[in-house]
């Protein structure tokens, strides 16, 4: 009987491990895609620096804005001269009137379709005084990848819930039925009435908590030694615990009179 | 200890196993004997609380059987084997014990020596004879010191020599105030009191 409980703890621990890896993989991949969005800035150009200042004060508080930098026309001219070795024609360049530029870097995880549309509506108000350049195609590719990744994650998550419920209920019922003979002999030999129900409850606690505690311990150990760059929301462990608790409850209901 | 009043069993509107009154005190060995189909096993099951289709009442320490539903004070040894065949003698004896005290351990060893199981304590039960298996059940019962030990068809398991050993094992519980009720087809020796089943009635000899 003890072997059965140990076996169940090992199996549930492995399933939890797989489930956590799915979650970590999703978080890691999502971070990569969001970093890609963050790394692609929007450039705005205007001949009037005041207009850009106004625009900046209007949008800089929005949560999807990570950073805004205004680059003045003189800096642009200097940059062009340095970058393209135009020292000989510097006088000519100085005679030109360059626009002021504004660079917006986005918080990748928050800059989604609604936010992009909102920003575009704001920019429209400032058109044609302000023109902007943004790699929308790359942003769309990243968004599509995030959507696909999220869908895949939810499907995987659902499958893990179903698999965990199935495997833990099946194993629990299997080992309990296997121990029916023992309990029959236990009761007929004068054993304490109600012991099986009590033992079932204690075993449920072992099965629910030991694998989860081990997984949480591994996670925090990896965090402590800085081997993991992403964080798991503690509610995720709560869902895992809830799943095994529900499976124990179902197993208890399915076993019914066997536990008496 | 045990009081049975107006007891009867029914089969197709015919009453049998009629007991007007049966009083069994602490530490007594009772032998109830009679032919097959007289209701001996059902009487034991009724006392044990496993069979309810009977008339009259059974009281243990002046309380009805319902009182003992959750804390049984009787142990029944019947014709079926209640042993884990692939486990050792020791494991089978201690199955119902929540914790084996030093005194219990010593007593179990002592009782195993009496029943020739001393050197077989680690042997798997499936390799033992039928009488040895019954000795294990008997030791397991007496070590728990129940109020009443019920044994069905006692003479089926033991020859005359082993019967004396079995009663010697029972003495451990009897000395602590337990009672023994054993049924058989014939009258057995070394009991304190005898009841015969004749003409569907239980008569004290």
Structure description:
The complex is a heterodimer of chains A (260) and B (205). Chain A is an alpha+beta fold. Chain A folds into two domains: 2-33 and 144-259, no CATH class; 41-134, 2-Layer Sandwich (Alpha-Beta Plaits). Chain A has helices spanning 2-38, 49-59, 73-83, 90-95, 113-125, 136-178, 180-188, 195-224, 234-255, and strands spanning 42-46, 65-71, 100-106, 130-133. Chain A has a four-stranded antiparallel sheet with strand order 2-3-1-4. The model of chain A has no long low-confidence stretch (mean pLDDT 88). The mean pLDDT of chain B is 90. Chain B has helices spanning 40-48, 89-94, 102-114, 130-143, 160-174; strands spanning 2-11, 14-24, 29-33, 54-60, 63-64, 74-77, 148-151, 179-184, 193-198, 201-204. In chain B, strand 1 and strand 2 (14-24) form a beta hairpin. Chain B has a single domain (2-204), classed as 3-Layer(aba) Sandwich (Rossmann fold), CATH 3.40.50.300. The two termini of chain B are 20 Å apart. In chain B, 28% of the residues lie in helices and 29% in strands. Chain B has 205 residues and is α/β, with parallel strands linked by helices. Chain B is globular, with a radius of gyration of 17 Å. Classes of the chains: A alpha+beta (260), B alpha/beta (205). Chain A binds chain B through residues 181-182, 184-186, 188-194, and chain B through 70-72, 75-76, 82-84, 95-96, 98, 137, 140-141, 144, 146.
């Amino acid at each position: 009987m003890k072997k059965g409980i140990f076996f169940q703890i090992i199996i549930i621990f492995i399933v939890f491990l797989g489930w956590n890896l799915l979650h970590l993989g999703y978080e890691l991949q999502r971070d990569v895609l969001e970093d890609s969005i963050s790394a692609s800035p929007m450039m705005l150009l205007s001949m009037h620096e005041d207009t850009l200042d106004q625009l900046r004060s209007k949008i800089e508080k929005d949560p999807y804005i990570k950073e805004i930098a205004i680059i003045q026309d003189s800096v642009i001219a200097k940059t062009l001269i340095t970058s393209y070795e135009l020292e000989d024609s510097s006088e000519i360049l100085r005679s030109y009137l360059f626009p002021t530029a504004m660079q917006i870097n986005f918080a990748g995880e928050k800059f989604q379709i609604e936010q992009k549309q909102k920003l575009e509506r704001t920019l429209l108000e400032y058109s044609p005084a302000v023109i902007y350049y943004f790699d929308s195609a790359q942003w769309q590719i990243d968004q599509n990848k995030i959507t696909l990744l999220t869908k895949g994650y939810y499907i995987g998550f659902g499958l893990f819930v179903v698999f965990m419920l199935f495997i833990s209920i099946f194993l629990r019922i299997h080992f309990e039925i296997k121990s029916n003979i023992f309990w029959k002999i236990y009761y007929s030999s004068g054993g304490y009435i109600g012991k099986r129900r009590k033992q079932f409850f204690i075993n449920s606690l072992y099965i629910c908590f030991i694998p989860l505690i081990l997984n949480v311990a591994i996670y925090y150990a990896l965090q402590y030694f800085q081997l993991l760059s992403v964080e798991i929301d503690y509610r995720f462990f709560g869902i895992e615990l809830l799943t095994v608790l529900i499976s124990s409850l179902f197993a208890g209901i399915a076993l019914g009179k066997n536990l008496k | 200890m045990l009081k049975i009043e107006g007891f009867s069993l029914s089969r197709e509107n015919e009453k049998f196993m009629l007991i007007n009154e049966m009083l069994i005190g602490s530490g007594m060995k009772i032998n109830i004997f009679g032919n097959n189909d007289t209701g001996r096993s059902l009487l034991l099951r009724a006392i044990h609380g496993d069979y309810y289709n009977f008339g009259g009442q059974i009281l243990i320490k002046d309380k009805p059987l319902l009182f003992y539903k959750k804390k049984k004070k009787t142990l029944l040894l019947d014709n079926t084997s209640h042993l884990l065949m692939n486990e050792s003698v020791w494991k089978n004896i201690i199955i119902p014990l929540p914790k084996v005290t030093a005194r219990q351990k010593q007593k179990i060893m002592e009782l195993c020596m009496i029943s020739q199981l001393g050197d077989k304590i680690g042997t798997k039960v499936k390799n033992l004879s039928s009488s040895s298996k019954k000795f294990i059940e008997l030791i397991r019962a007496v070590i728990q010191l129940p109020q009443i030990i019920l044994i069905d068809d006692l003479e089926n398991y033991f020859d005359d020599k082993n019967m004396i050993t079995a009663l010697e094992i029972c003495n451990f519980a009897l000395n602590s105030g337990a009672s023994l009720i054993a049924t058989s087809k014939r009258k057995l020796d070394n009991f304190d009191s005898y009841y015969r089943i004749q003409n569907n009635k239980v008569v004290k000899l």
